[in-house]
Amino acid sequence: MFDSFAITAQALTSQRIRLNVIASNLANMNTTHTPEGTPYRRRDVVFSTYPFEEALAVAGRSTLTGVRVVDVVEDAGPFRLVYEPTHPDADETGYVMYPNVDPLEEMVNMMTAVRSYEANISALKATKTMISKALEIIT
Fold it and tell me: Taking the model in full, what pTM does it have?
């Protein structure tokens, strides 16, 4: 049962990182000029299974896997072009390149991350309840 705490904790951490990246995307959805000289590029997290084999092998148990963030990557999608000839970042034709952040997509990703976070909290509570009930039986 304690292994599930570790797996759930790692999943909660992964979803927290995902939520931070989504918040950053939304906060920069109108950033037309970064230190690199380009508009902000949308970022996304890359998840991977995380083997708990080392700890479980010592305990003589079967292999379990969790999830973790292995990378935060930039979206290579095209920037959004908007005609704004008076904007300081407008090119010679009057177009401004805006970030490739779609607020609707980000909100859907945020809702998914929040639901995953809530599901992991529920799993944590269920494990805690099982341990508590097992201790009641013992005593």
Answer: 0.81
